Amino acid sequence: MIRTRILLHHEPSGTASDAEALVGRIRSIIGSVAVDCDCRQRVNEALGRFAEMEQQRVTRCHLMSSRQHRAAIAALVGLLAELEDISFHEADRSVFAEFASLFDDIAHHARLGAEALRLLDGEDA
């Protein structure tokens, strides 16, 4: 059996609070600049829309991440089906370490998937 590791390349970048902090910094800069009220209001509205879109982007990324971890777990469980084909009399004892590693990988993906979902739960989605 060949050691298989399923890696996910798409992990959420940034958080909603990062976007909120950025919007806050921009608002404070704009607040210190002498611009007319109409312009300031339009900029604040645009920043509000940006913050909302950024929140949605981060939420989608966390959900996509959890789905990718679920898919990785499904693929690893498929590989574990080969466990039915070996016996405790197996001549190559390293096969047991390989299967143990598959279980470790499943646990790893389960932990990361759960973390992504917990981040979703903690956000104002």
From TrEMBL:
Q: State the superkingdom.
A: Bacteria
Descriptive protein name:
Hemerythrin-like domain-containing protein
**Whose protein is this, by species?**
Devosia albogilva
